[in-house]
Amino acid sequence: MPLDDVKDSNGNILKDGDSVHVIKDLKVKGAGETLKRGTLIKNIRLTGNPGEIEGRTATIKGLVLKTEFLKKA
């Protein structure tokens, strides 16, 4: 199953294992925490949806983030 190209907010193609920065403060539902602008998310995984990636931070595991709020590190 070929995946569509997954692109960040600047149009850069993302791949499994890339690192990304958050470009906007994001409230995380269920965690009671906010991801601040500039937070680095390492070792991302692509989902079947070209508009989303999976990742983790030091405090939150199993994040699913929209690529429109990310830029490649």
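The record above closes out task 2.4. Task 2.5 opens with a second protein, given below.
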Amino acid sequence: MWFFFSFMGAIASFSVAQVFQFRMADDRLHVQAHDLLSLAVKIATQSRETLSAINRLTTSPCSEKDVQELRYILYLTPYIQDVGRSTEGKITCTAVWGQLTTPIQLPEAEWKNERRTALWRNIHGAPDNRLIYDIGLVAGKAVAFTRRNLFQHFETANKNFQAIIFSPYGDHVLASMGTGTPAMIPLLNQPNGILTYVGRHAYECEKNFDMCALVQSKVSKNITSTSPLTALSITLLGALAGAGAGHGLSRQILSKRTLEKQLERALERNLIGVVYQPIVRLSDRTIVGVEVLARWTSEDRVSVSPEIFVPIIEKMGQTRKLTRLVIDKSLAELEETINRDSYFYASLNVTVEDITCPEFRKMIIEKSRLHNIEPNRIALEITERQTTDMATLQDAVKDLRKFGFKVFIDDFGTGYSGISYLANTPVDAVKVDKMFTKSIGTHSIQSRMLDNICKMISDVNGSIIFEGVETEEQASLLQNLYPTENAQGWFFWKAH
């Protein structure tokens, strides 16, 4: 009997360890699929907005003024290599090459989606045949070509996998990483088996963009091959503990290891932390406020990036709970500092859905009163990449500012809604994206655009906060050029 229970315990503990390894591997694959899809959606969003912006131009196609407008649109698009015009299946002009003497005939499209956008992969889009773009897109009379190797960093960081981005029905592969990736499509109908040691996979889809990401591991997840000493130790422990302990361990491990379950517990127990990134006045580099940032350490004591856990919380439908938690913690911790310094303020990241929600507006008013903080010492940051009905947003912002709250536009310059925000929504400050800050002192397109962006912000009586200042050179140049404005970044202070 003792031998039987010891044997069963050894089998149970070994099985639990193997299942645990599978689960952790699958969790990592799901995170990789999510990150890959997020990058693809960013590229798709920018491509869609770029094509729409070109189609909205009123200039005569391929005229000198039209090419100038195309170049301006291209300047705002870090994921796009070139944009242009197409007529009857031929490229007639581009921002890079200007008007083409001989229009370039496009081959038959590889794929068309429901929005009548045609797509090509590895396409020649310019007179020089040496230039090949990853993806070419045509919608209406607009054409755009994405940059080469947009997924190279992701592929380098995740060497032991292969992946594809594909249409929801698996009828077309939009991008691939690794070898033999088109053959991965049949995996969609095959769940990871309990004995699948090589080739475990995960995928995630985005309905709004008709695309999915599928990743597959190329390395063995057999615990005896990856860590034989660990496998032996766990087996011996299970033999001593018996079948009952092994079974209990199995249930305990499997119930705690998914990020979603851990985040549920973290939100319930108020275990999401906050850190503060100081905002400084450029003229004398005095701290005038802080941006509040959410941080989370998993139950495995691993610091998880907000770029990973915030989208998971959004998917769980718990964004407002996270926002409330961050507001509660930060205002409680900053109450004394804010009330001590007459100019100091706290800047909170919120969504457009928060801003336009009457319950949120009521909550933030109540919290400011609870902590005895004047509303004008609280700034609410919304990113221009979040969209909603402009009239609704405008009314909500006016309502908040009527109570004294400040409203900022975050990451300005990364999307097409920014000009519309400035033109239609009264805001107190605009945070210029770090992409432009990093260009200070260079001869890049972004550097040449920065003056125009700052002038545009000043024209609507908005203050400027430069994000991502990382060097003394950047800080000094900004101080000389814009001494009355503010900035933040690792050069001044890291978030802590």
